[in-house]
Hints:
alpha/beta, 10 helices
Amino acid sequence: MRHGIIVIATDHPGNMTGDSSADGMMRIWERPKDLVFALDQLLKQSDFQKRLDVSRVAAAGHSAGGTTALLLGGARLSSSRFTSPIPLCEGSKDPYFAKTCTELKAIDLKKYPKDAVDGNYHDPRVTAVVGFDPGMAQSFEPSTLKNMKPKTWLFIADKLNAPQDQIHSKDFIGMMPANATQVVPNSYHMTFLQACKPGIPLDDPELKELCLNTEEKIRIQNDVAKKTLEFFEKVWNEKPL
């Protein structure tokens, strides 16, 4: 715990590092349910009941985690717009993405129940949302992004490491309210993940991208972390009209 903030981080079976599939990736609505369950369980613990201020709950995440945060904030997917989160990844030199793209291409998106895709996963306890280069912009119902109740701020990656990395996160800029997005100069999608430690084997394509320009990555992360904390403080200290 730093800055008086307790962080709940959950596993998402079927949609996380080490346990992932194309089907699990598409079932993004399972993620906000995981977090709601985790928060509910935490609030049942007497030790935490004394320490938590439930008027100050934020949802934050990177990539699919950013999508999750938006769903928790009240944004909704649209079954008529629902599409692959990495639509151009076919031909990727990254073996993980190459495999995932083959699986994604084979999925019939109409198999997912309309009520699940279009569902409301808003948790009214969430009063602030931060996303770090979130995905699936093309799958959201735009009007719901414009009308989210929690104050929201998205940090958007500036550059692509390869054309196959395109997740259309910049589409959020035109879909969100004014001043709710910021393109982070010189950043990539993986800039928002932890910096690599010395000695990491860079012959792995995925690790090579993760470790791209480590010094700049650390500088950007420190700046983004500072702005995120300032955003939370501003939201939670605002006096109601």
